[in-house]
Structures are given as C-alpha cells and as structure tokens.
C-alpha cells in the first residue's frame, strides 16, 4: 500500500518535470522559410522580414554575394533610408545565381537583382518578371585577354581559345564582336570553363575569356600578377545594355506598387550617399560581408571606383530606364535567336519614379 501511495505522489511530479524539460528544449525559434529553402543561402543579420509598426516588409535577393555594387542597398539600410520610407527590408543572398528570377516570379521574394538581357530571356521562357530600375547602366562583362598577348581586337581570336562561363548570352556576345570586327566566329575555339574564368586565363589554357567582370575578375587577375586588357563589347556590335537591374514580378508590381516605389526612392538616397561618401559606404558594406565570401578591401575599393561612373548619368535619376535601351537589347536578342519575336520590350520594364 505504501508503494502504491508513493507512486501516486511521485508520478504527477515526474510528469510536470518532463513537461518543463520539454518546454526548455523548444525555444520556439522554428527555421524560417529562407533557412529551409535550399535556394536561399542566407539573409543579412541586421534585417527583418516582418512588419514593424507601420512599416511594410519587402525582401530583396542579391545577384551574388555582397560586394561593392550592392553598397547603395546596405547604405540605405544602415542610414535609415528604408525606414524613412516606411519599409523593413530583408536582404537575401542566393544559393544559386539562377534562382533569383524564379523566386521573384513565384512570390518567394519581392525583388531581385538581375541583368537586363536576362529579363528578356526570362520573359521568353514565360517567367513574368519586369525591371523596375537600372542599377548599372553599361556592361561590366568585357572580353578579357592578357596585356602582352596576341589579341588586340576581336578578329584576332581566330584560331585561338576563348573560355566562357556557361552562359549562351556570352557566347552570342563574343560571336557578335568577332563578326563586327570582320572576323570569323567559327574559327575560334570556344570552351565552356564554367566558373574557372580566372585560372583558365592565368594558366594560358585560354587566350581570352568572356564572362569576366571588369570590376571583379580583371581586378583579381591584375592583383595576382596577370595584367589584362579589356575590350568593351559595345564597341563591337553588342548593344549598350544595363548590366544590373532591379526586378519584381508582374503580380508583385500590381500588388505592391506603392511599396516598390518607396523602395526606389530609398535606394536613390542610398546611391547619393555612396557617391558623396564612398569610403564610409565601403565600411558599411564590409561590415555585412558574407563569411563564406570574405571581401578584399583593395579590390572592392577599386571596384567601386569603376562602378560609380557606370551607375549614374548627369541629369538622369538613379534607376531611370530608357525605352530605347530595352528596344535595342530586345532586337539584338531576337536577331541572335535567344528570345522569340513575341517578346516585347515594353512588357519587360516599368519606371516607378519620375525621370
């Protein structure tokens, strides 16, 4: 009887103890959708994706890991320009650079940084995305070759090896450049080197590379003791396209036009700040570098020096898009058979701010 009474006394206490331990083991911090989504590598630790007070939430996915070209976004965050516009902005990084537009179209993120030709290519595949602002107004991808090499212009690539980074657009660019320079594109050896652009040129495996950025690969090659010269595709028949654009989905623009317009106003303030205080902007950027992709201050400083003149033009608001630019890029892509003729330039962009 005493044993039964003891069990009756201890059993409720034991159950309560187990409940307390179980409660301590569960903090309530369930993984967010971005953590469980294999397509999202990470979010900026200083940002939030939830509404706070009267602020509206927006999420933006970068085109790559944080670097100098994104300074205006981090400055807008750090200086409170998003908050001034009543926005809480969640800055995310893609696990794969091809994911961003698909995630925007699916409503997983509100905004993404992408490339002007890529928007038209996406619409040709039925992906309903549009550019709402031009970030970098001219190509950053140039044909890169060794300074003391045999290539002085695109036609010199006949009989030589050109490495490119798995993107059909870059193949079309180098073929256009050769044709415009009276060369025969079929006489070059075009090799897909994937992400190994730098080692392929540095090792001599390739005589030139297409897909390297003048504010990144060129700077790294030069720092590693491989001086290179760049040949601008615009000088050889490729349209002067916007290298980087800010993108949203058709549905997103319709549903959140006011919030997106306020976002554009905030990044305009951020860009103005970067222009006036570039060193401070880089300090802000470096404070947000991704641990998996640490930044080199020297490289990012030189990169920003290259970028700033290409991101703004006198008398034109930051982000403004010229219809003629979209028409020219669309015509070239159709000629190269990269997009169907049914894709219309006016469907691929919208200006949310005044000129």
TrEMBL record:
The UniProt entry, under Gene3D superfamilies, shows:
Periplasmic binding protein-like II (3.40.190.10)
Which positions carry the signal peptide feature in this UniProt record? Answer: 1-27
**Annotated region (Disordered), positions in chain:** 28-54
Please state every residue range assigned to the domain named SsuA/THI5-like.
67-281
The record, for SUPFAM superfamilies, names: Periplasmic binding protein-like II (SSF53850)
Alphabetized UniProt keyword annotations: Signal
Query: What are the Polar residues biased-composition ranges?
Result: 28-41
- UniProt feature, compositional bias: Low complexity: 42-52
Which superkingdom?
A: Bacteria
Q: Is Nucleotide-binding among the key words of this record?
A: no
The cross-references to Pfam families, in alphabetical order and at most eight, read: NMT1 (PF09084)
> What biological processes does GO assign it?
thiamine biosynthetic process
- This chain's protein is named ABC transporter substrate-binding protein
Q: Which organism is it from?
A: Paenibacillus xylanilyticus
């Amino acid at each position: 009887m005493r044993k039964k009474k003891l069990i009756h006394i201890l059993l409720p206490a034991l159950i309560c103890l187990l409940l307390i331990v179980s409660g301590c083991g569960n903090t309530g911090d369930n993984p967010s959708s971005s953590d469980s989504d294999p397509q999202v590598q990470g979010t900026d630790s200083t940002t939030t994706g939830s509404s706070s007070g009267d602020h509206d939430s927006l999420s933006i996915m970068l085109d790559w890991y944080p670097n100098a070209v994104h300074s205006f976004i981090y400055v807008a965050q750090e200086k409170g320009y998003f908050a001034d516009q009543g926005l809480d902005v969640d800055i995310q990084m893609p696990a794969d650079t091809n994911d961003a537009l698909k995630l925007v179209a699916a409503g997983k993120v509100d905004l993404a940084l992408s490339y002007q030709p890529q928007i038209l290519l996406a619409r040709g595949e039925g992906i309903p995305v549009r550019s709402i602002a031009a970030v970098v107004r001219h190509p950053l991808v140039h044909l890169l070759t060794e300074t003391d090499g045999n290539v002085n212009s695109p036609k010199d690539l006949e009989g030589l090896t050109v490495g490119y980074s798995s993107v059909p657009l870059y193949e079309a660019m180098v073929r256009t450049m050769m044709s415009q320079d009276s060369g025969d594109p079929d006489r070059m050896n075009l090799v897909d080197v994937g992400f190994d652009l730098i080692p392929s040129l540095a090792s001599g495996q390739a005589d030139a590379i297409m897909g390297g950025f003048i504010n990144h690969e060129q700077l790294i090659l030069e720092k590693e003791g491989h001086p290179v010269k760049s040949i601008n595709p615009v000088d050889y028949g490729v349209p002067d396209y916007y290298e980087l654009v800010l993108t949203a989905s058709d549905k997103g623009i319709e549903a959140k036009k006011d919030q997106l317009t306020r976002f554009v106003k905030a990044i305009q303030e951020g860009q103005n700040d970067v222009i006036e205080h570039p060193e401070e902007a880089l300090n802000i950027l470096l404070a947000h570098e991704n641990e998996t992709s640490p930044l080199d201050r020297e490289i990012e400083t030189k990169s920003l020096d290259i970028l700033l003149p290409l991101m703004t033009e006198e008398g034109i608001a930051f982000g403004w898009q010229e219809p003629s630019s979209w028409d020219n890029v669309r015509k070239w892509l159709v000629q190269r058979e990269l997009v169907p003729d049914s894709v219309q330039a006016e469907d691929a962009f919208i200006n949310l701010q005044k000129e």
